[in-house]
Amino acid sequence: MTASEKAYYSIHPKFHMAVDCIIFGFEDGELSLLLLKRNFEPAKGQWSLMGGFVEEGESVDDAARRVVGQLTGLTDLYMRQVRTYGDLDRDPGERVISSAYYALVDIKKYDHSLVQAHNAFWVKLPEVPHLIFDHDQMVQDALHFMQYQASVKPVGMNLLPEEFTLSQLQALYEAIFREEMDKRNFRKKIASMDYIEKTGNIDKTLSRKGAALYRFNPERFKEIGQFKI
Amino acid sequence: MTASEKAYYSIHPKFHMAVDCIIFGFEDGELSLLLLKRNFEPAKGQWSLMGGFVEEGESVDDAARRVVGQLTGLTDLYMRQVRTYGDLDRDPGERVISSAYYALVDIKKYDHSLVQAHNAFWVKLPEVPHLIFDHDQMVQDALHFMQYQASVKPVGMNLLPEEFTLSQLQALYEAIFREEMDKRNFRKKIASMDYIEKTGNIDKTLSRKGAALYRFNPERFKEIGQFKI
DNA sequence: TTAGTGAAGTGTTAAAATTACACTTTTTAA
DNA sequence: TTAAAAAGTGTAATTTTAACACTTCACTAA
């Protein structure tokens, strides 16, 4: 790189870059968020999203994966960038630009000890408290974006165990879109999606009769490739 | 701020932060992008989006507005953040994180001398050349996002003059979604949108008969608040 | 043994939205 | 006066979506 090329960059300022993660779970017919009750500064004692700074040598996407992994012990989650927040005073301590990411977690599968160590808790969406900085806005934006994605792509299943009943699936979509759905119409729609397939197993935990378990088959989805709920 | 609070930030690295702008126009029934044929380093001679670094004391959103303003002379454009690109080597010169924004411009209204000074050109979407870095990806993502927004919000009109004919409007949506639409069905749909109102003026430039001119009324849209095309 | 419980599972009809489709009107330039 | 060229207009068929209630099953407890 020539001197002038170097100057092209170096005359411009640099910024702290962070990621904040909106971690969605699903339990008891409600979406939940995994939130920190901060036992560290800044904003100790307040509620916030799990976040962290982008470090040298990692992409912003990787930082988000790392941060979620640090809290949940989980890798390979379904994660998407929501947007980037770059207002001057969004962090009152110092200027920090932050990219928000949402993650979808099977709430049965996270590392409890890590969550406990971070003083983090699952909070049902209607009970989410006020969060620090612009995290309330991030949650709003993430929810909307997630709702949109869930309406056009079969991503909701990432919030359920690998095998799930149709009642669970319906309850999930009712929670995501905050609207009741008709059982027969819902099941008709799912039946038309050949990539949601019966596993042959039966779940007996919720009813004497037992409910057929289904799974999402990503390969078959790739062939067909359309979803709308 | 205490010393420990300061350390909380300062132990972390800082990054150059840029914005890159996908500037859409509409002409001759096609979407166009305003692109730079770079007459400066780095990547001199290649095509790129208009971009710039975020400076101290300006938000990322403001940086995007400034950068589009520098090229077009226009402020108050409809602009939305697309997403942020944070891969390690996305800029081969040095690590730069960049937020992409798209802007919708009335192609009749920009400052020609500024565009000329930047060696920028309107290029019809199907003829857009390969761009530097990850700008091809940015264009893809911006187009998809813009298409989505245009399908659920009345934002397409930002690409047209204040007053427009229904033929222009239909051609615009056909260009955005790359699909032909039925004239009668289209006009039926628009007629049901009370916030797209006849101005009483007539455009005579395209036909002997003349075509009624319409305008978008944002106040009336706010009252009604739904759009789908 | 059988009656009660509680979730799982299953079709049809009405209403609404979308799509397909072709001719008439208007103006002016030749 | 007529040819040209875009503007403007309505109906019927199809598809999609929404509304709606009872039966089945397997177990538990009387």
Secondary structure elements and pairings:
The structure is a homodimer of 229-residue chains.
Chain A: H1 3-10, E1 14-27, E2 30-37, E3 47-48, E4 50-53, H2 60-72, E5 78-85, E6 96-104, H3 112-117, E7 120-124, H4 135-152, E8 164-165, H5 166-177, H6 183-191, E9 196-203, E10 211-216, H7 218-224
Parallel strand pairs in A: 1-6
Antiparallel strand pairs in A: 1-2, 1-4, 2-3, 2-7, 5-6, 8-10, 9-10
Chain A binds a DNA duplex (30 and 30 nucleotides) through helix 6.
Summarize the structure.
The structure is a homodimer of 229-residue chains. In chain A, a hairpin with a 7-residue loop joins strand 9 and strand 10.
Number of helices of chain A: 7
Number of strands of chain A: 10
User: Could you estimate the helical fraction of the residues of chain A in percent?
Assistant: 25-40%
Distance between the termini of chain A: 52 Å
Shape assignment of chain A: globular
Low-confidence stretches of chain A: none
Report the radius of gyration of chain A as a whole number of Å. 20 Å
Oligomeric state:
homodimer
Give the SSE order of chain A as H and E letters: HEEEEHEEHEHEHHEEH
